[in-house]
Amino acid sequence: MLTYKRKLKFTRLQEERISSWIGACRVVYNMGLEIKIASWRAGRHSVSKFDLMKQLVDIKDIEWIKDVPSQTLQNSIERLDRSYKNFFRTRNKGGGFPKFAGKKKYQSIHFKEVSVNENIVKLPKIGELKMFKDSPIIGTPKTAQIIKEPTGYFVCIQCDTSKSISNSNESQVIGIDMGITHFCVDSNGEYIKNEKHFAKYERQLRIENRTLSRKTLYSNHWKKQAKKLGLLHHKIGNVRMDFLHKESTKMAILYNTVIVEDLKINNMVRNKKLSKHILDCGWGMFRDIITYKTNVIRVDPKYTSQTCSECGSVDAESRISQSEFVCTHCGCVINADVNAAKNILSRGTAFIRQREALACA
């Protein structure tokens, strides 16, 4: 599945209608959450998403809810159900209970029917919407999502396609080690520079935040400054995403298979000294992006930085510094990040061979 994101061209009437639909879905989400909480407190009864969907019929007489496509309203209940499932799966790890959706948090609606004709997207009830001209959408459109962002409304179209970006040569395999000094280092010894997107705009963010703090809360000047600050955050996110897409596409064209560490990023960001730098790199987003562009294999990152890629001995003292690795057993001298990338490659290659042997058997 490939996702295409395009900016929409709205008429004023269409924009008001979509904004109303987002508000209606937000209300349905909050009502569903309130019903589930009240039912549990009253008699320890759990209300399923199907029970909540049946209750949607009772509020269909309200005009501004009746106007919303039924599948779009049902998706807001499904979103609530996913929030509950995530809570029960992660509550032992500090996962939070689902919260009521605020106006600034709930900014998207989902459509299960969509058709695309060049720069026109057709959605249920609202009809045809114009998109800004961009690269052609390849594949069969399955679902769509309209998202409200600081710079306007965007549509994300998911398409089922068999087109592959990756190299047809199956022998091209690479292992990469993610880092902070360098964004990543591959097993061939090549480096990708860490652009440090947040650090470039940190001073400007500090100035805008200070300006916002001096405004009277919820005044017109405060709202204008809050919008300005939101646009700056949005710009940083777009710059980071642009970098990740370009680097992942380059890697997907050159290599058929990319082997990465299965890092537990949520645990790593608990380190207060490194959390800002780790999140700024966007390792998780990079891993997700490259997954649909080429074959990706995740391996256990344990001891990859302490294992010698030449003799295989494991010793923490072999890593003298952040960048220098000298094996205490065989005397091999190599860059520490390149050594880790080679270990990742060897683990991934072993996994590929094991999988091929099982397939043959």
Low-confidence runs: none
Number of strands: 14
Going by helix content, strand content and strand pairing, the class is: alpha+beta
Fraction of helical residues: 40-55%
Detailed description of the structure:
With 361 residues, the chain is α+β, with helices and mostly antiparallel strands. The chain has 2 domains: 159 residues, no CATH class; 188 residues, no CATH class. The chain contains 10 helices and 14 strands. The strands form 3 sheets. The protein has a 7-stranded antiparallel β-sheet. It has a 5-stranded mixed β-sheet with strand order 10-9-8-11-12, with helices on both faces. A two-stranded antiparallel ribbon has the order 13-14. It is globular and about 80 Å long. The mean pLDDT is 90.
Sum this structure up briefly.
The chain is of the alpha+beta class and about 350 residues long.
Summarize the SSE layout with pairings.
Elements: E1 2-9, H1 12-43, H2 49-55, H3 63-66, H4 70-90, E2 108-111, E3 115-117, E4 120-123, E5 127-131, E6 140-149, E7 152-160, E8 173-178, E9 182-186, E10 191-193, H5 197-213, H6 220-254, E11 257-261, H7 265-268, H8 275-281, H9 283-291, E12 295-299, E13 324-326, E14 333-335, H10 336-360
Parallel strand pairs: 8-11, 11-12
Antiparallel strand pairs: 1-5, 1-7, 2-6, 3-4, 4-5, 6-7, 8-9, 9-10, 13-14
Helix pairs in contact: 1-4, 5-6, 6-9
Throw out a few tags for this protein:
2 domains, 10 helices, single chain, alpha+beta, 20% strand, five-stranded mixed sheet, 361 residues
